[in-house]
Amino acid sequence: MRLYPPVHVDTMACLNDDVLPDGTGIKKNWFVTYHTYAMGRMESIWGSDCVEFKPERWFDEEGGVFRTESPFRYPVFHAGARMCLGKEMAYIQMKSIVAAAMERFEIDAVDKDTCPEQHMSLTLRIKGGLPVRVRPRECVMSTA
């Protein structure tokens, strides 16, 4: 979701004059937009390997335990007072669907070397979908 966030851009309207944390002044009725798609690819935020899919990025160094990231650095579900109310349910749904599918099937992207083209809309979608090959997993029976 860091590289392909569902909501790739978000805009807020300023109700009163305000100052951003970096000192930038914004006026009443101005719009502020942040681009989560671009933020997920920024070397200044994610390091020199920012465009690589590396699941280990999300685990601590000691025991491979999942570590949460600041929602201001990883704003896929927004941050602060406007945090997505469905975030926890979305994580539960993602984990259960992925676990059920991965247990039963091997899923491979057809063209792993090509970056998919996006279809810009309110939510970010892959133009034409993502072609994958799906094969049933070989069952490994335990003799215990």
TrEMBL record:
It comes from the Eukaryota. Gene3D superfamilies: Cytochrome P450. Signal peptide: none annotated. Its cofactor is heme. Pfam families: p450. PROSITE patterns: CYTOCHROME_P450. The keyword Protein biosynthesis does not apply. Keywords: Heme, Iron, Metal-binding, Monooxygenase, Oxidoreductase. One of its GO terms (molecular function) is heme binding. GO terms for biological process: lipid metabolic process. Belongs to the cytochrome P450 family. This is Cytochrome P450. It comes from Arachis hypogaea.
